[in-house]
Amino acid sequence: MRAYPPYTSKRKIQLVISNTPYTILARRKQLLLIRIAIALFIIIFIVVQLNVINYDFHPPSNTESSSNNNDTTQAILQSIPQVLHKYLKPRNNSQATNSSQATNNDRYQAINISDIQRSIERYNEYQTIINEDVFGPLQNDSIVIVVQVHKRITYLRHLIVSLAQAKDISKTLLIFSHDFYDEEINDLVQSIDFCKVMQIFYPFSIQTHPNEFPGTDPKDCKRDMKKEQAAIVKCQNADFPDLYGHYREASFTQTKNHWWWKANRVFDQLEVTRYHTGLMLFLEEDHYVAEDFLYLLKMMQLKAYELCSKCNVMSLGTYLKTFNYYTYNNNHKKVEVTPWISSKHNMGMAFNRSTWHQIKNCAKYFCSYDDYNWDWSLQHTSHQCLKKKLFAMVVRGPRVFHIGECGVHHKKNNCESNQVISKVQQVISVATKAGQLFPKNLMLTVASVVKKQKIRKGNGGWGDKRDHLLCLNMTLGVR
User: What are the boundaries of the signal sequence (predicted)?
Assistant: First the structure.
């Protein structure tokens, strides 16, 4: 230990300086210089902050996007190992973008729906695990990653690339849950060679039921039809508008039904996972992961066992409008414990079978709540039914990012994902070079006092009793 000299008191000698015109002028000059220095510091700080990598999602103008698209694409490819470029190449080298995915609908109108249904039935019956012969059977403490997929293949390609670069990904089982049958998406998923892979298909999709429930039946009431008018024309769901007076839209109800079916399927029906007691991590096709996301999730799980027995949900993503390196630098190893909030902690969330059984036992609360969002419905279930409320351990420096510019809730003229993906890659790259990934330990903090949450009114879109019944019946699904 370094030895410090003993503290000795010294007598202070006061000097009396008279307020001469010269000293007054000198003081004013000194104050002026200090103010100038402070102003320069503030200006420099602002300029630096403006140039920091901001993780915001404001897309460029169409002109800017078209002029920079090639450069951005090239930059994205340069940051990805050459061996992973294969996941980004469209089949037959065709140019595929998210904005062109509508062509899938036209393409599949020419295919017999019954053929698609038979293919889906075979996938769900056989439960084939790709690469199991290479990576061995699933271990009970392994993490199972479940990805909900629609048809935005460009986003999915980049999610797969990010997963391929994650540490310990070879130990996981990666399950893709689809609600749209597409051969190009199937080829992409089946080309994965870095871990075990399985595909499951939601059997009640709009694609396979285009003119009947759960799709849109021609005899259904129109969304904005008044209940009185619906009674006159006698549309078949006239008695079941939502709490805002609107009738069901299949494209919105499908997402919640798919999520609930998927959770029931992986926890209780698949042979490979129905006895699995490890964590199930839920992702979506437009997510992107950092390379230490599994490493950190394991650390969080151990931390919860030691210090937070009431934490039954792990969350790896957060929604931040502006995200820069300095925010990451201060939070890369911090985790916070807090009541689970649907709008904040639904991205990259993980829980185990014990938590799932509590949720499933409250199925009627989830399935009858008038909200088409699965996460809002889950929070309602937590507040109204669960004996042990959902309580989350949340990573402050996100390891799961949202890259989707367009989807069910958002429609834009420009749905290119390059700009957002490039920014995410830059944030991860800066954090990697600064040694902010793979922390040796975690710093646990408790959220500031949270106000007791009021019972919220749902967002509607879920008033149709047919959706309630379909949802409840999913807990009775056969293997």
Answer: none
